[in-house]
Amino acid sequence: MVEALIKRNLKTHPQLNFPDYKSSRLRAPKNKKISFSSTSTEISGPVFKKDIIGKLDNDLTLNFSKNNILPIGHKIIVFGTISDQFANPIEGALIEIWQANAAGKYLHHNDNNTAPVDPNFAGCGRYITSSKGYYEFITIQPGPYPYPNRGIEWRPMHIHFSVFGKSFGQRLITQMYFEGDPLINSCPMVNSISDKKAKQSLISTLDTSRYNTKKLLSYKFDIILRGTNQTFFENRKEGL
Amino acid sequence: MSDIKTVLDETPFQTAGPFLHIGCLPNAINIEGVFDNDLGVKPFANKHYDKFITITGSVFDGDGKALDDIMLETWQSDENGVYSPESGFARFVPNSLTKKFNLYTLKPGFINNIDGKAQSPHILLSISSRGLNMTLNTRIYFEGDDLINDPLLSIVKNSRNDVSSLIAKKIDEDIYLFDIFLQGDKETIFLDI
Ligand SMILES: [Fe+2]
């Protein structure tokens, strides 16, 4: 008996071909992906050790600051848990995040937005989840930003997330949005997901219970990676 | 084994966007001093270089343009077909001038699958970029290897006549070419892993 990944439900994921998101037109493959049950290749994966994470890696307000000058904008906490589809917390998951600064500008040579760079903010962070699958980042509220799509459109405020679980088949790259942002509903990238509940699951919620303990607004964003099932293989059935 | 456990929905993907380097490869775009090292720069840091192969290629969009604002990741076994969590992962981008990527790595061995059957040597390759609402996955097999009995290639052959987009061409001693076509006549076969 081995642990195989449960099949991915593509109905809760974005459509690759989604012409409202213009960049997808020349990049999204037209043919259907080939499905198959997990092999040793997908159920294994790299595991990153906690010692790769520096002390300030999850504090984006300090990890690029010069002479202790804080970046502009309001400081927030983004936290949550990583678990699998059976609600088992995943310890040791690597989360990498990247985001625009408070003005909606990325520290990147391809960002043509005219908003200012913040010399004290790089916009990257990483963390490895603790035993209960918990993670936490301290950062600056990212600004919304304009980008060319069908004319100029505006991205809702968001943070990009890249996650490694225990196997390569659990690998996830996504974006977290902020509760109450009026730009979410018209965003073609959000709307490439047709399932309402799935869409909603990308919107972090303001956690008012933390008002008293932390002097920062806290947004909660829980992430669910694929689960594994115990699978019987025909040629081994008798022995089990 | 319980069948009544609730299965939660997986968090959906979203595009990695054009600025993914900031989070995944900051040192590569000169954001220095935040992370000591970018991850996956060397898939096998402790192995001997004389055994390494080079896999090179480009990723083409529907207009036949070679892309450079993408991120590739690979996951593979060692030369004996063994997966180990400490090594075998690489992360890289195409060169901005040549638009070619180069993966310098061990050639994987035949891999024992979970059902006891052997898989032919291969590398799992993923592509993330703006315009891709989900990360794409495919596999790199190698020209010259015994591919007849590979279980995944057999499954692919049930629905596709031509599996050559999954096979890297040997273009020189220890050098393989693996071009990826996102669309068009030569569209690469992608996998729902
Ligand atoms: Fe973004």
Structure description:
The complex is a heterodimer of chains A (240) and B (193). Chain A is mainly β and 240 residues long. Chain A has one domain: Protocatechuate 3,4-Dioxygenase, subunit A, CATH 2.60.130. Chain A has three helices and 14 strands. In chain A, strands 3, 4, 5, 6, 9, 10, 11, 12 and 13 form a nine-stranded mixed sheet that branches. Chain A has a two-stranded antiparallel ribbon with strand order 1-14. Chain A has a two-stranded antiparallel sheet with strand order 7-8. With 193 residues, chain B is mainly beta. Chain B has a single domain (21-181), classed as Protocatechuate 3,4-Dioxygenase, subunit A. Helices cover 7% and strands 30% of the residues of chain B. Chain B is built from two helices and 13 strands, in the order H-E-E-E-E-E-E-E-E-E-H-E-E-E-E. Chain B has helices at 21-24, 151-159; strands at residues 52-57, 59-60, 70-76, 89-92, 101-106, 111-112, 118-119, 122-129, 136-142, 167-172, 175-177, 180-181, 191-192. In chain B, the strands form three sheets. In chain B, strands 4-3-8-9-10-11-1-5 form an eight-stranded mixed sheet, with no helix packed on it. Chain B has a two-stranded parallel ribbon with strand order 2-12. In chain B, strands 6-7 form a two-stranded antiparallel sheet. In chain B, strand 6 (111-112) and strand 7 (118-119) form a beta hairpin. The mean pLDDT of chain B is 94. Chains A and B meet through strand 2, helix 1, strand 4, strand 5 and strand 10 of A and helix 1, strand 6, strand 8, helix 2 and strand 13 of B. Strand 2 (34-35) of chain A pairs parallel with strand 13 of chain B, so a sheet runs across the interface. Residues 155, 158, 160 of chain A line the site of fe (ii) ion. Fe (ii) ion binds at residues 155, 158, 160 of chain A.
